[in-house]
Amino acid sequence: TDLSNEDKINNRSTRTDLSNEDKDQQNNSDRARKSSNKSDYDKTGDIELISFTVRCETVPSSNNAQNEEDASIRLFCKWASPSSSSAINYYTIERQIGDKEEWLPIGEKIDKLDNQTQLDISSLKDVENSINKNLPSYFRLNAHLQNGQ
After folding, report:
1. Where is this region: Disordered (predicted)?
2. Alpha-carbon distance 149 to 89, whole Å?
3. Global pTM?
């Protein structure tokens, strides 16, 4: 996968594959993801973003070995919120490993006045050893509302 391409999406999540997957498998997974996102939206009353753009870069390790296993992924995320976003308290970027795992926040809380952030994510196994190069990672921007939702 060429990680230097920009992916524009209309949904709240995007996918960065760390392995080569069959296109049919990707399409089936993407259809399931869109269906799942719609049901999540209906259940929680989330605010739909006008746009959410993610650019990915591979960042080599600082050691001279240049081992691909030690590389990190740098995500550059930028978004535009609707005028109804005054109810937003702060944002977080969340990550899901595979299709069945729970969404977990990564990085720090993002101020509601900010519209972009940058995150470095190791391609090695994380602290919980839950990352598998054969599983896709999904990322989404989550708006936390002032009323606690």
Report:
1. 1-43
2. 10
3. 0.56
